[in-house]
Design goal:
about 425 residues, mainly alpha, about 80% helix
């Protein structure tokens, strides 16, 4: 009986593992800060936005999986081969900028959170730098020495820390559960000095990551999922993943709602939130929350270190074939994680962003340009899915977008285009004023 229960548990973990990896990788310092700050500003009234954001990201990732299982190509391969050469000229600069700024932010966030728990340095900036670089090195060692199986196991531990501790904190702050329920089912945007809409949009758009959704395609290949027969498993997997993402986001909003006048950004705001929680929950409550935040941050760093090199290696491989006049391969080509472009990009993403952590170079203007470029990713992803999954001669009649899917993708396109336009407008304003 015990063995049977253990087998069922292992089977469930095998099914939902790639989705949980997407969920854990997609929650970074910015997502933690946005959810906490939105809760502080608007309270639990906007919890419905977390659910809607997770719902939209589910449809995007499901479309990615459906294309890959129907064609044998990753979505990136489909975009490069079928949507024109312009894709590769847009994607590579975006990937390089995204890797630098996200890598730097994740290292810094891990450093800040660790220094808050282990304050062995008198200078917090020094603690952030040392611990941030150390986390990057540990991430590389785990990816290189452990392979995919060890990566999965470490991520599961981080996910457990992340969810259990943050959910426990959300319960310990004793929210008004009736207000929480109302915030989940009754869509309303509070008018807070004219910024209620902006905070709500940011909360909805920040659920579940951006570029990291592409990683799902490579993780399901690692789990040997190919062919349309695996689509049902992927849908279950992703439903669990985005439900977990929504629960985590809801917990962070609840925690933030119990703290007034929260100020800061990124991991610094997370530490400020932990310090403020200690006033009501005591030192133990502060530690519980920081451990959960650290689990979220390190799992995000480790997920990016392990999966984004797949994207780069895949991109270089297909553009190389294009330059030689070759079409897509008849069978999926496995990416060698032991050498070549995968290893090269792993080292680059782990080392180059250190310049941002130790502030060796001022990338402030480039960061503003990145914010403008990066804002386009989600609407372009929705547009690509509308086109790639919209043709029966590409994905087959059974896997072509249905009317409901088209409507949701159009709504997603409009919403994220609106988010992008707002972000671009604010970035240009900042550049002009700066």
């Amino acid at each position: 009986m015990g063995q049977s229960g253990s087998s069922r548990q292992l089977g469930l973990l095998a099914i939902i593992s790639p989705g949980l990896l997407v969920a854990a990788t997609g929650v970074g310092a910015g997502d933690l800060a946005t959810a906490g700050l939105t809760g502080s500003q608007l309270g639990v009234t906007v919890l419905w936005a977390v659910l809607l954001g997770a719902f939209l990201k589910y449809f995007l990732t499901e479309g990615l999986a459906r294309y890959q299982l129907a064609t044998g190509q990753t979505l990136l391969e489909g975009a490069v081969y079928r949507l024109g050469k312009g894709v590769k000229y847009i994607f590579l600069p975006y990937l390089l900028l995204w890797s630098f700024f996200v890598g730097s932010a994740l290292m810094s966030a891990c450093g800040v959170a660790t220094h808050a728990m282990i304050p062995v340095f008198d200078d917090p900036d020094r603690g952030k730098e040392v611990f941030g670089v150390l986390h990057s090195v540990i991430g590389v060692v785990l990816v290189v020495r452990g392979g995919f199986k060890v990566f999965e196991k470490v991520m599961r531990v981080c996910i457990a820390f992340m969810f259990v501790t943050v959910l426990a904190t959300a319960c310990l702050v004793q929210p008004d559960w009736l207000a929480v329920l109302k915030g989940l089912v009754y869509p309303k945007i509070p008018d807070v000095t004219g910024q209620g809409l902006g905070w709500t949009v940011a909360l909805m758009g920040g659920v579940g990551g951006t570029l990291t959704v592409l990683c799902y395609g490579y993780w399901i290949r690692e789990k040997n999922r190919s062919g349309e027969a695996h689509l049902r498993i992927c849908r279950i997997d992703l439903a669990v993943a985005y439900a977990a993402t929504a629960v985590f986001g809801i917990a962070m909003v609840i925690i933030g709602s119990k703290v007034d006048s929260l100020d800061g950004k990124g991991a610094n705001l997370v530490v400020v939130l932990a310090d403020r929680l200690s006033e009501t929950l005591g030192p133990a409550g502060r530690w519980v929350f920081l451990v959960g935040a650290w689990g979220a941050l390190f799992s995000s760093l480790l997920g990016v270190w392990q999966a984004v090199p797949y994207i780069f290696a895949d991109f270089i491989s297909m553009t190389g074939r294009q330059s030689r006049g070759e079409g897509p391969p008849a069978q999926p080509v496995a990416i060698d994680t032991h050498r070549g472009m995968y290893r090269l990009y792993l080292i680059l993403i782990a080392v180059v962003p250190m310049a941002g952590v130790i502030r060796a170079i001022d990338f402030s203007q480039i960061q503003k340009i990145y914010a403008i470029i990066g804002a386009f990713f989600m609407p372009l992803l929705a547009m690509a899915l509308l086109v790639l999954n919209g043709r029966a001669d590409w994905v087959g009649r059974a896997q072509r977008n249905r009317v409901m899917t088209v409507l949701v993708l159009l709504a997603t396109l409009v919403f994220f285009a609106w988010v992008a336009a707002d972000k671009i407008y604010r970035s240009i304003q900042t550049m002009v004023s700066g």
